[in-house]
Amino acid sequence: MVEQGENLLQAAISAGVRVYASCGGAGTCGTCKVKIESGEVATTRTEKLSDEEYQQGIRQACQSRVMTNLSVYVLVESRLEKVVLASEQKRVSQVLASGWRFKPPLSKYFLELSPPTAEDNLSDLSRLLRGMRRRYNLSHLSVDFYVLKKLARALRKGKWKVTVTTLVTASKPRAGEERRPRVINIEPGDSREKHYSLAFDIGTTTICGQLLELNRGKIVAEHIAYNGQISYGNDVIARINFSQKPGGLKKLQKATVATMNDVIEELLATSRVDAKHIGHLMVAGNTTMTQILLGLETKYIRLAPYTPLANFFPPVEAASLGIKLDKHVHLYTFPAVASYVGGDIVSGVIGAGIHQRKTLTFFMDIGTNGEIVIGNSDWMVTASCSAGPAFEGGGVKHGIVASEGAIEDFDIDHASLEPKIDTIGGKKPKGICGSGLINIIAGLLEARVIGQNGKFHRTLPTKRIRKGSDGYEYVLSWAKETQIGRDIVVTEVDIDNLMRAKAAMFAGFQTLSKSVGIECRDFEQVIIAGAFGNNINIEKAITIGLLPDLPVDRFIFVGNGSLLGARLTSFSTDLLDDARRVAQMMTNIELSESADFMNNYIAALFLPHTNAREFPTVSKRLAKISK
Amino acid sequence: MVEQGENLLQAAISAGVRVYASCGGAGTCGTCKVKIESGEVATTRTEKLSDEEYQQGIRQACQSRVMTNLSVYVLVESRLEKVVLASEQKRVSQVLASGWRFKPPLSKYFLELSPPTAEDNLSDLSRLLRGMRRRYNLSHLSVDFYVLKKLARALRKGKWKVTVTTLVTASKPRAGEERRPRVINIEPGDSREKHYSLAFDIGTTTICGQLLELNRGKIVAEHIAYNGQISYGNDVIARINFSQKPGGLKKLQKATVATMNDVIEELLATSRVDAKHIGHLMVAGNTTMTQILLGLETKYIRLAPYTPLANFFPPVEAASLGIKLDKHVHLYTFPAVASYVGGDIVSGVIGAGIHQRKTLTFFMDIGTNGEIVIGNSDWMVTASCSAGPAFEGGGVKHGIVASEGAIEDFDIDHASLEPKIDTIGGKKPKGICGSGLINIIAGLLEARVIGQNGKFHRTLPTKRIRKGSDGYEYVLSWAKETQIGRDIVVTEVDIDNLMRAKAAMFAGFQTLSKSVGIECRDFEQVIIAGAFGNNINIEKAITIGLLPDLPVDRFIFVGNGSLLGARLTSFSTDLLDDARRVAQMMTNIELSESADFMNNYIAALFLPHTNAREFPTVSKRLAKISK
């Protein structure tokens, strides 16, 4: 039931309708448009609604209050679709970390104990610990209180044959550190074959989980879903702002946990594994997502000087956060480096094995918040570049998230200037996704439809270039060919937004390289992580100046590096040690405070770059075309 | 509201009426007698009600169901009074442990941190830990998750001046053991002056708590109350039986926690200390009380071969048990030795300092379950003797717990055989407490009113000796002189019950001494612990053969040894280490399995003992009297 006066976006979220709301309901992004088919809403109109839209009954859901019974149509481009997420599952991440021992932090041990007698009436716990010492040479175990609750019953139900689960948080502890394995569970009988854990990547946009089998080190199932927080804002800043509202943090936390529970349910259903056989939960996420998941204050992440609450979090009982797993399951979160370089990046670095090799590597995770790492096994520097939402379709007139009908590839006839477009799923176009926009801009540049400044050559003989409400634009698809019944265009404003985004990433890379005195050509390897990164065309991304001008064979995609690292550490305690070490060895450089970065950024607001020497092969090619 | 058909004892408990019910409502003890003044109950009559009582409307509450509205009078002797408990507070325990360092496990540290800047934007937690390292040279601290919840706010509210509370569980950790102090709390500003903890003895009958000030090592307040479990049974066996009923364990646990909360409330009210400044809770109790408090299965304590669930329990969050303290407060329970030698005895041994001296010591805690320890700093053996409830007034016709009006001292004119009695508080007599019974029997023995077999000389010229419903008895007080309006007598059955109790204690002592090859006269020190022990007259207890026949100056009372140990370990982490060591070094001897014990027990069913050489001075004195 919806109350009169309730916010329409909130009402939709409560009803489980997936509406995109990139600004989190502030009214500034215009992505949550709906059409009121019948009934009345009270709306505050913003500049995001054209006169034409307003006349058609289109409203921003976040700016509307429900006044009567309603029939509402969610515009195609405002919907959160499932399709691409599903296809993404099929991509297998390329495992780059190597040479690690298969030795999961979670272990199961089977014990056959002698029953107590008058001569041997040790306490139940002492008997258990004696068994672990004698049979497995394991002394000095610590024991969770929860185990004591189950102990007497499990021993007798199993007729003194039991399976003990232990957990370690470090392989080689440092001075003063807890080195004792913790006994976290006891089960009657021999349950060693039922030995599972979960690895999760908690992304700002999506949450991806894997069910892992720990005896053989296999992925049993994988599932991905939109992070339930998405309707509260598109990026971490919007989420942090929302968390400051009364009850906001709690709502965000609940939304994340609800999504995690959905993913877990799906993983268990498809694999027919019983929840009680899951013994551990390894989570990688950025600093904001990690703190929200744990229910911790996020305010100071976004206030200068940008301090996270902590870099290391103690493991917590998963059930205490609302996660539907047995009480013995601990949730371990990857350590973070800084407010905007989180556990997801540490996890990605571990997954990519950068810490294991002397190879000079440039690691990048491209997204709204792009993170970059430069280094090798000896040292690493890192930075976060606030690229804005353009890569995910935000701030782009017809930008949408990658889903069916999104334009993902583009070619242009250099003579007729007519486009050839490909959409995800081969459906009629409904908008442009981030990787599509890169390809469009590269194509327009190479066809000299736009100049290196990103502006249209206005005298070209095609009616596809015209002046629209947002200035000059190029029509990619005429209204009748689309799903949305309107012309799909790319505007100068869109191009400008993407140029700002790519400039931020490249300037970050340059600033970081210079800070350690390394030239672009010295990089032996470029690792691209992230779902978005996985979809981009390397050559075209080099053409527009997003990626450095290096031979294509130096680029490697790892897909979801954060999830990869979470999985590998679930299999190897050594890598868990490495994660701590890497988080501590990474030096974070705060770009927002760097004059050098600002200079580099301004120089990068050109296609591919103001300084042609930074992109020698692209410059040569463009020069050849223009002759 | 009471339902029709509800058990009257349960209804009384629910209504907060304190009724004594030594057998836990089984109907076998007859201590819960009430008089139905109006209304109807449905009662199952047992042999515990005389015809006269039945006619007067007296019923056993536990055997009665409520049928109509009732007016019920709780018989004077069935009431749980508060008086003696209050006076007991005034006795100061004699501290015997010595040479310990004042270094509480709980510490407070004040930090003045520098606020974060762009050049120094460490995470809040790293800043805190750096402060602890720089200012106090404390590295490798572990941090409770709860602290992270408060951290951001506390730092900013205190303007980067905060007080950090740490807890250690061991001073000198053993191999592989957690040695890192845990950071358990953070408060804005300087709160070092507000630094308190609690020490508790959880007894089967009473719960005693002390509020401790940790900067100066002082007792701020002390309070004692009946353990809320008392109405569920008088001894641990009755409680274990009750815990096996559906919901029984939960009820017992709640009852204990409710009493603890009452005691805490009283301690805070009298001392005007705020609950939030309490940082720790140290608890000593017998094995059953400890396991019930923690909500753990107790069943196997009472089933051969008598295995406790564990000897060591990890600290638990006090609030998770229902204790009304802040979430950062951990509850530490003393380690136990065996099912019937619990943390209270380990605590008593630590409090008495037995582990610190070469002095050959006999330590005894006299009660329903009497525990004895023999040893010194090098070795210790221990045993538990099931003495029965006679020392606490159970199984004694007019036996009551020590409270106002209880006969506590007795003398008899050897010529007229007229008694001279003293009662607690000088009130009219209403019954006999345990220590009173010892004095009565000693007096009757020395006056040759009873023989060494505990039977009355039936030909003596006094109407005070007569045959009653339970056989021969001696009238201590005529009906008109009493509170209860009936003659108060001591019967042969009562004497027999006390003889069994003292025989069990003494036989335990003999069996233990013999097992290590030590003669009675070799003991340099006898330490008597426990509230009951504190009240007994040493010479008279030797006369009846409860205590060994040693010079009176070798006996020392320590009062509540369990509470004493809990307090001292709250002041000294070294003693906490000692407690673990002592629990492990004590060898438990299971007397119920020992043929030697049975022989000693039968020999001890005589006043003072079948073997006169065991009690040379008493035998000499009795021989002199009889001449």
Describe the protein in words.
2 copies of one chain form a homodimer. The longest helix of chain A has 24 residues, at 248-271. Chain A has 627 residues and is an alpha/beta fold. Chain A has 17 helices and 27 strands. Chain A starts with 7 loop residues before the first helix and ends with a helix. Among the domains of chain A are: 8-79, Ubiquitin-like (UB roll); 106-188, Ubiquitin-like (UB roll), CATH 3.10.20; 195-333, Nucleotidyltransferase, domain 5 (2-Layer Sandwich), CATH 3.30.420.480; 353-387 and 498-596, Nucleotidyltransferase, domain 5, CATH 3.30.420. In chain A, strands 12-11-10-13-15-14 form a 6-stranded mixed sheet, sandwiched between helices. A 6-stranded mixed sheet of chain A has the order 26-25-16-17-18-27, with helices on both faces. Chain A has a 4-stranded mixed sheet with strand order 6-8-9-7. The model of chain A is unreliable at 83-93 (pLDDT under 50). In chain A, a hairpin with a 4-residue loop joins β11 and β12 (218-226).
Indicate the topology.
The structure is a homodimer of 627-residue chains.
Chain A: H1 8-14, E1 33-38, E2 41-43, H2 51-55, E3 58-60, E4 64-66, E5 71-74, H3 83-88, E6 106-112, H4 124-136, E7 142-143, H5 145-157, E8 161-167, E9 182-188, E10 196-202, E11 206-213, E12 218-226, H6 236-243, H7 248-271, E13 278-285, H8 287-293, E14 316-317, E15 330-333, H9 343-352, E16 361-365, E17 369-375, E18 380-386, E19 406-412, E20 419-423, E21 431-432, H10 434-446, E22 465-468, E23 471-477, E24 488-491, H11 492-515, E25 525-529, H12 531-535, H13 538-543, E26 555-559, H14 561-571, H15 573-585, E27 586-588, H16 595-603, H17 616-626
Parallel strand pairs in A: 7-9, 10-13, 13-15, 16-25, 18-27, 19-21, 25-26
Antiparallel strand pairs in A: 1-3, 1-5, 2-4, 6-8, 8-9, 10-11, 11-12, 14-15, 16-17, 17-18, 19-20, 22-23, 23-24
